[in-house]
Amino acid sequence: MELVITDSAAEAGVLAGRIMADHVRRGARAIGLATGSSPLGAYRELIRQYREEGLSFAGVQAFLLDEYLGLPPDHPQSYRRFIRDEFTAHVDFADSDVHSPDGNAADIPAAAADYEQLIAANGPIAVQILGIGTNGHLGFNEPGSSLRSRTRVKTLTPKTRADNARFFAGDLAQVPTHVLTQGLGTISDAGHLLMIATGTGKAEAVASAVEGPVSAFCPASILQMHPHVTVIVDPAAAANLR
Ligand code: F6R
User: Fold this and answer.
1) Judging by beta carbons within 10 Å of its beta carbon (0-12, 13-18, 19+), is residue 151 exposed, middle or buried?
2) Would the CB of 80 count as within 6 Å of ligand 1?
3) pLDDT category of residue 65 using cuts at 50, 70 and 90
4) Which atom of ligand 1 is nearest to 139's Cα?
5) Are the CB atoms for 222 and 147 separated by under 8 Å?
6) What's residue 72's pLDDT?
7) CB of 41 closer than 6 A to ligand 1?
8) Taking 90 as the threshold, does the pLDDT of residue 2 lie above it?
9) What are the backbone dihedrals phi and psi of residue 193, each rounded to the nearest 5 degrees, phi first?
10) What is the mean pLDDT of the chain?
């Protein structure tokens, strides 16, 4: 595992964006995207490189980690809409090349299996950008998730729902209770895992993931089992590292 402590959160985002851009330039067929606030700096850097340096995503397939259950696809906080607004609509991604689990499917287990098949048919995912939950979740694999899990429904913990209420104008009641998420096994199939964490709120989770025991109780600790991992943190998120 490569651990990079940058001088600032802004630098962490730029570095993560550069690493993703390198994969795209080297011909990645598929890349993995995350939502939430952590990857936004990386997406800004990718948009900048698209506008100023000729970076192209034409023909690249993008796979989101997760999606809320029951939010209409055009809801501003559906992850499908979020990734379009924050990233893919600003570069030359075809909308049809940006994939997410179908959180509105009539048959959710079938939608999970379909998503696994879609990734398998278009993968491998060259690089997967990841945030980390304050409770150590990766994707929406909450503590206790099987280390070999595949895409499936998960119930969000009260902590995660409270953390994410900020995206729903602070109204906890609006935060969905369930999600479809790639499993820890699915995530681990990507060639390069790139985790970014900034701010003091992530310090404890980062230390558990990077230096703690590998355990289902800190799902992000599976990073320790993967052959190619880069963790990028700012000084605040690095504060609990030995
Ligand atoms: C988002 C995701 C989550 C977030 C995590 C951190 O697609 O899978 O694991 O990465 O909850 O969220 P932020 O970055 O908003 O702190």
Assistant:
1) buried
2) no
3) very high
4) 8
5) yes
6) 87
7) no
8) yes
9) -100, 125
10) 97
Q: Which of 37, 130, 137, 179 to mutate to test the pocket of ligand 1 (most atoms within 8 A of CB)?
A: 137
Please identify, by atom number, the ligand 1 atom nearest to the C-alpha of residue 137: 9
- According to DSSP, residue 192 is labeled E
Q: Are 181 and 140 in contact (CB under 8 A)?
A: yes
Distance CA 20, CA 31 (A): 8
Q: Which atom of ligand 1 is nearest to the CA of 130?
A: 10
User: 127-184, pLDDT tens digit by residue?
Assistant: 999 999 999 999 999 999 999 999 999 999 999 999 999 999 999 999 999 999 999 9
If you search the block for the tokens 């809320």, which residue do you land on?
68
Domains along the chain with CATH numbers: 2-233 (3.40.50.1360)
What local confidence, expressed as pLDDT, does residue 73 receive? 81
Cα(22) to centroid(ligand 1), Å: 23
DSSP annotation string for 158-179: HHHHHHHGGGGTT-GGGS-SEE
Mean pLDDT of 38-59: 98
